Amino acid sequence: MSSVKNARVLIVDDETDVLFALKMLLKTEVKEVVTEKNPDLLPGLLERQKFDVIFLDMNFKSALNTGNEGLFWLRQILEKDKDASVILITAYGDVELAVKSLKEGAADFIVKPWRNEKLLETLHQTLEKRQQKTKGSTATTSAKKNPHTTILGESEAIKEVLYKIEKIAPTEANVLILGENGTGKELVARALHEKSFRAGKPFVSVDMGALTDSLFESELFGYKKGAFTDAREDRPGRFEAASGGTLFLDEIGNISPAMQAKLLTVLQNRQVTPLGSNTPIPVDIRLVSATNEPIYELAARSQFRKDLIYRINTVEITLPPLRQRHGDVELLARHFASIYAQKNHKATPDFAPETLQKLKQHSWPGNVRELQHAVERAIILAEGNVLQPQDFSFSAMEVASAAPAASYVPDTPVPLSEIERETIIRVLEKNKGNISRTAKELGLTRTALYRRLNKHDI
């Protein structure tokens, strides 16, 4: 870490305690630490000396407290030195503003109150990036060395998502992922984990929509032997299992008010108490949540706690539906074709032009997941090595309208399972992929509908 030991660091903050704490932390890590309370003196400081990293507070005037002061001085610094590495210091509630400021040219940000080890990791990472730039290495080269291949897309909509992942992942901010079913919310959650400083620790995923009130505590908080009839041994909950890593709570918009209250208490106290125990266990998790529900509408109707929303969405990522990802359908279709051709011991097929046209015109209510299953079915059933329009079918209505009249035989019995499958697809399309509304219309629980989706490979 010679680059760190030789680094010169400037800290600009109007709080004396912050300056002192940072100087004490960094003085044994770097060559020189300079502190400054008054940002108006920044231009003169930068004229006299070059700094490898500048820690810059986002708020200097308590009466304003908007972060605009930090953005102003960030721009001033970058005007003086376009290659300056600026790490913003922000309050918990201003993280969204800090993320936006990354587009203005900031290298990274830390949230007050910070953890010393996290701050040092951010400093080291920023210095390493700076050193790579000096050697002529570019962000593009870095991306080629460490490609993230699980989220594909070239549309502007998905590029915005990938940009946010890159910037948010190294922070400790809680993230709320919004988007329709099948848009890839779990992929984003895993990407956030893999690109974070917790990457070597557990990633634990929980489908909150499948948990009943009675299972909620035992699954999330764990239990002690004898806590209830079937508790034959101690079992850690998902929070404890994820400690040190990332906990992903999928379908969080579907949990009951009682569950919401218990979850809020754990997130506030950062400790869980297993069933059958009176001893709380501290947990250290980075929380990522996801839902396809209109969570703010639920909050407005008092069906979801606003204070819980504030806890889970320090930063928000909204995933675009596939129909809005212009240009990505062909890219994804070819990607899935390559995967499933290899899986089924076939040559990777091509797509007829009219097939690509059909895929691009489809509305994809099930989003990327629907496209993935459609391509897999086509690979399995196609006769030739060029996928034709007839190799893709999306609903019972479309199949019926495409079939020639002579081939329809009214007396031919239709298997009950096929009727069930086509009914689910039709209702799912009608509800634009919304699982909760589809389950309600079909008279099923969400868990029962998920079982049928898996059963019919939808």
Automatic annotation (TrEMBL):
SUPFAM superfamilies (alphabetical): CheY-like, Homeodomain-like, P-loop containing nucleoside triphosphate hydrolases
Q: Which residues carry this modification: 4-aspartylphosphate?
A: D57
**Family matches, as PROSITE patterns:** RESPONSE_REGULATORY (PS50110), SIGMA54_INTERACT_2 (PS00676), SIGMA54_INTERACT_3 (PS00688), SIGMA54_INTERACT_4 (PS50045)
Q: Where is this region: Disordered?
A: 128-147
Q: Which CDD domains has this protein been placed in? A: AAA
- Record's compositionally biased regions (Low complexity): 134-144
Q: Which UniProt keywords apply?
A: ATP-binding, DNA-binding, Nucleotide-binding, Phosphoprotein, Transcription, Transcription regulation
Q: Which Pfam families match?
A: AAA_lid_14 (PF25601), HTH_8 (PF02954), Response_reg (PF00072), Sigma54_activat (PF00158)
Response regulatory domain mapped to chain residues: 8-127
Q: Using the record's annotation, list all stretches that form the Sigma-54 factor interaction domain.
A: 151-380
Check the record and name the PANTHER family matching this protein.
Answer: ALGINATE BIOSYNTHESIS TRANSCRIPTIONAL REGULATORY PROTEIN ALGB, TRANSCRIPTIONAL REGULATORY PROTEIN
Question: What is this protein's record name?
Answer: Sigma-54 dependent transcriptional regulator
Q: Provide the species name.
A: Pontibacter anaerobius
